[in-house]
Design a protein that fits this description.
Leucine_aapep/pepB; Leucine Aminopeptidase, subunit E, domain 1; single chain; hydrolase; Aminopeptidase; Peptidase_M17_N_1; manganese; 15 helices; five-stranded mixed sheet; 463 residues; 2 domains; elongated; eight-stranded mixed sheet; alpha/beta
């Protein structure tokens, strides 16, 4: 997707536009006093009390003259602004006024204006926002999220391993980064677990690698994304219902490609290594089987207790590769376990980490930017559940409990000792539409990771 694809949400600076008066509950009396008496009376008699996200259109001589947006108690949540593009008259141009936060307004407006339109035209066009001063970084973050959403929303017929790798290439080309695709014999030798997971599909697996030197002496951040473009479950076949949304099983890869693009476009003083495992977990005579023993890049052998626990096998090789580069931090992201959704629901990505400072930074950043994460423990007492009599480790636990924790403990085996690491287990999907969050693919945690990384930079600079 080109950057121009996002301009439908924004108006040209300087264009004639109407005001959206954003107001908190505390600021409502002052706003009402400053309005035209007829508009103020209309607002009062409509029962408007500035609840977050409530939009009132103010009448004028030639139709709608202005709008009032309630912000609740705080102007900084992007979701308060997310309903504006479709609450305001179609195709009209607006600017923010009053107590609006420029970054939150820009982000919320752009995220709310998005609709997946590759195969079906939207019912109507959104209203457009004149970008406010102070919203430039938010615009970059919004565009990164929209690209990730678009990838997740694409059906697997149009987004296989090759296309996902091409998407990574596009990120590298737009940002002036290096790109390498590993496939064929090189993949089989260097990433044997990735090759085993993708071996059942006629669409060959590959690993996409992006390298970026934003700052020659900056810390190296490694991002490892699960890119399972469709997951049938393999020979341990999912049910029909279980397969319905498995086009989103590359949501971790999409999230980290978006994060990487945002970091590069905003010129973060870091170096980046992005590793995407692009595969399809399919059923065929070449598919891996239950109780097969696989070799990994690290040299550990893995018994396949269940072919539907394939994402952790992909990440095992990616984490090993990333660790070989001695990064300051490894982050992986994956739509990994249903257990995380049972524990936290669809909106809260589960965060696992071996480093307390990383945990504090990411959790605080998520709360501050309304992109919350929730930490779950790497409980050592469950590690033995991964024991295998035939291999160094099993890919699933021996008990039907704590599935997300056990999966994280599996991944930890492939992270070098002493390297800070964070694992994000996310849903990557909005089950229903809400302001700023239309139904479909979602880059949950992208803004939290970005803000958390920026918060960690001073500590790395001192070390």
């Amino acid at each position: 997707m080109a950057e121009a694809d996002f301009l439908w949400a924004l108006a040209m600076p300087g264009i004639n536009s109407r005001p959206v008066h954003a107001v908190t509950r505390q600021g409502l009396p002052e706003l009402t006093e400053g309005l035209d008496p007829s508009a103020a009376a209309f607002l009062r008699e409509s029962g408007f009390v500035a609840e977050a996200g409530r939009v009132m259109l103010l009448p004028g001589r030639e139709g709608v003259s202005a709008a009032v947006l309630g912000l609740g108690a705080s102007p900084t949540s992007p979701w308060a602004y997310g309903g504006l593009p479709f609450a305001l008259p179609e195709g009209t141009d607006w600017h923010m006024a009053g107590e609006a936060d420029p970054a939150a307004a820009t982000l919320g407006w752009m995220l709310g204006a998005y609709r997946f339109a590759r195969y079906k035209a939207p019912a109507r066009k959104p209203a457009r926002l004149v970008p406010p001063e102070g919203g430039a970084e938010a615009q970059v973050l919004a565009e990164a999220i929209l690209r990730a959403r678009e990838l997740i929303n694409l059906p697997a017929a149009d987004l296989g391993p090759a296309e996902l790798s091409d998407a990574a290439r596009g990120v590298a080309e737009r940002c002036g980064a290096g790109f390498e695709e590993i496939a064929g014999d090189a993949l089989a030798q260097g990433f044997p677990a990735v090759a085993a997971v993708g071996g059942g599909s006629h669409r060959a697996p590959r690993v996409a690698v992006i390298r970026w030197e934003g700052s020659a002496d900056g810390p190296l951040i490694a991002l490892c994304g699960k890119g399972v473009c469709f997951d049938t479950g393999g020979l341990d076949l999912k049910s029909a219902d279980g397969m319905k949304r498995m086009k989103k099983d590359m949501g971790g890869a999409a999230l980290l490609l978006g994060l990487a693009e945002a970091l590069m476009r905003l010129r973060a003083p870091i170096r980046l290594l992005v590793v995407i495992g692009a595969v399809e977990n399919a059923v065929s005579a070449m598919a891996m089987r239950p109780l097969d023993v696989l070799r990994t890049r690290k040299g550990l052998t893995v018994e396949v207790g269940n072919t539907d626990a394939e994402g952790r096998l992909v990440l095992a090789d990616l984490l090993t590769f990333a660790g070989e580069h001695q990064p300051a931090l490894i982050i992986d992201a994956a739509t990994l376990t249903g257990a995380a959704r049972v524990a936290l629901g669809p909106d809260l990505p589960a965060l696992f980490t071996n480093d307390e400072s990383v945990a504090r930074a990411l959790l605080a950043a998520g709360e501050a930017c309304h992109d919350a994460l929730w930490r779950l423990p790497l409980h050592e007492g469950y590690a033995s559940w991964l024991d295998s009599s035939a291999a160094d480790i099993n890919n699933v636990g021996s008990r039907p409990m704590a599935g997300s924790i056990v999966a994280a403990l599996f991944l930890r085996r492939f992270v070098p000792d002493g390297v800070p690491w964070a694992h994000l287990d996310l849903y990557a999907w909005n089950d229903s539409a809400r302001p700023g969050r239309p139904e479909g693919g979602e880059a949950m945690g992208l803004r939290a990771l970005h803000a958390g990384l920026m918060a960690l930079l001073p500590a790395w600079a001192r070390s």
